[in-house]
Amino acid sequence: MPRKPKTAKEFPWLFHETYERRQADVKSALEPEKPAKSPASKKQSPANGERDKRMKEIGRLLVINIGGTSTKLGIYFGVDAISETNLNFQPDPKGRKVTDELPARLEQVNRFFSHVGFDIKHCACIMARGGLLAPITAGIYRINEKMCADLAEAKYGEHPSNLSALVSWELAKGSSIPALIADPVVVDEFTPLARISGVPGIERASRQHTLNVRATCKKAAVALGIPFEKLNCVCAHLGSGFSIVTVKNGKLVDNADGLLGEGPFSLERAGVLPIRKVIDLAYRFKDRRELEYLLSKRSGIAGYLGLSDFQEVERRISAGDDEAKLIFDAMVYQIAKNVCMYTAPLKGKQQAVVITGGLAHSKMLVAELKKYLIWLAPDFLVYPGENEMEALRDAGYSALLGEERIKEYTG
User: Fold this and answer.
1) Domain for residue 293, yes or no?
2) Pair (107, 28) in one structural domain
3) pLDDT in tens, 137-195
C-alpha cells in the first residue's frame, strides 16, 4: 500500500514559505544565537506589575538550593532579589553519607544570615530544591516528617540536593513558616508505554532536571502564545548532566534518564552504552561503586579528554585540537539523535525544540545543534542557564498566591 504523503495541514512547517525559511536558517546556523525572549526580559505588563505587587504584599521568600560543593541562597521580595549568594562548601574527602553534612550545612546558612542581618522570622516562605524521593507528580509539596525521613535515610538515593529540604525543615521548625519544595528530579508523569524497557523486571525510570525543564517550558509556552497545558515539545537541558524530555500537553511523558540511565554522554556521564560491552566492563570490577564512579564521573568528555570544563574544550577546539573537536562533535551528534528520538511520542505535533541549561550559553554548541534540529519543529528556542533559583522563587509565590495547590508528600 503506498505511503500516505505528508500534508501541509499535519506538518505545516515542512511546506511552502515556512519550510524554505527553515532551510535558510540552516545555512546561517553558525551565526550567534539570540536567546528566546522570556517574560522577565520584557517590560513588565500591567498584569505582571500587579502580580509583583501582590507578591510583595505577601513578603520575603527564602530559596535554598544545595549542591555538592555549594549552597545557593536567595532572599526575594517579589521578583526583586534582596540577596543572592553562593556559599562554597568542602565535602568530607572520606566520602561520608551526604546527610552527615547536615549540621555543617545548617551552621553555614545560619552564619550567613547573621552576617547579613537576616531574621528567618521575617520570611513568608522557604522554598527548597527537591531531592531523591519516591516518584511523584509535578508540583509544589510541603516538607513534612515523611519527606525528611526518606531524605535522611537516602531511601531513594544519595544526592546533595537531599539536604535542601532537610535544612529548610530545621530552619522552619517551631514556626508557622511554610517550607516547600517544587518539581524534584523524581517527578514521574510517564505513560505506561514509556515504562517498558524490553527486559521483564527492569522498568524505565523517570528522572530529569524537572525544575528547570518545567520552568523553561512555561516560558516557551508564553513565547509561543499557547497555554502550558497545550505545549508539545522536546526540551534538552544541557548542564553538568543532561536531560532530554518529551513534553506533551504540559506533561513530562518521557525522558532519557541521564543519571546512569540513557541519553547522550555528557561532561562526566557515560550515557547509553552497547549492552555487551557493558557486561564485559562490569566483570572487570569487583566493587560496584567503582564501576558507578567510572560511568558517572570519569566518562563522557572527562573520560575522553581528561577534563570537564566545557570552556576549556571550546578553547582546545579553537586552537586546532582535532581530538577535542571529534569528541565535541560526537556529543552534539548524540544530543541531536536523542532530541529527534524523543519527538516520537508527539507523532509530529511538536511545536518547538527547546534548549536550556548552562551549556546553552555556548554559541558553538547551539550553532551545531541548530544544524541538526532546525527542521524538526516550527520553533527552535534557546534559554541559557539553570534558572533553578528563579523557578523556586516563582513556585513559592505561586503557592502563597493560591495559584497552585500545595500537595502533601506520602512516599
Assistant:
1) yes
2) no
3) 999 999 999 999 999 999 998 888 999 999 999 999 989 999 999 999 999 999 999 99
Handedness of CA 269, 273, 277, 283 (dihedral sign): positive
Reported as a single tens digit per residue, the pLDDT across 64-95 is 999 888 899 999 999 899 999 999 888 766 65
For the record, the C-alpha cell of 9 comes out as: 495541514
In the chain the first and final C-alpha atoms are separated, in Å, by: 51
Question: Are 359 and 340 part of one and the same domain?
Answer: yes
Nearest residue to 75 via CA among 103, 112, 40, 130 = 112
Give me 332's grid cell: 552534539
Alpha-carbon span 402 to 396, nearest angstrom:
10
Looking at the fold, whether 86 and 58 belong to one and the same domain comes out as yes
282 within a domain of the structure (yes/no): yes
Place of cell 557486561: 279
**In this structure, are 78 and 29 located in the same domain?**
no
**Residues 227 and 323 reside in one and the same domain:** yes
State the Cα–Cα distance between residues 187 and 182, nearest whole angstrom. Answer: 10
**Statement to judge: residues 396 and 373 lie in one domain:** no
CATH (domain of 220): 3.30.420.40
Do residues 252 and 242 make contact, with C-beta atoms less than 8 angstroms apart? Answer: no
As given in the structure block, the three cell numbers for residue 79 are 521578583
For the chain, what is the radius of gyration of the CA atoms?
22
Q: Which domain holds residue 68?
A: 46-186+390-408
Which position has the grid cell 570552556? 311
In a domain, 247, yes or no: yes
**pTM recorded for the entire structure:** 0.84
Looking at the structure, do residues 223 and 140 belong to the same domain, yes or no? no
How many structural domains are present in the chain? Answer: 2
Regarding whether 365 and 314 lie in a shared domain, the answer is yes
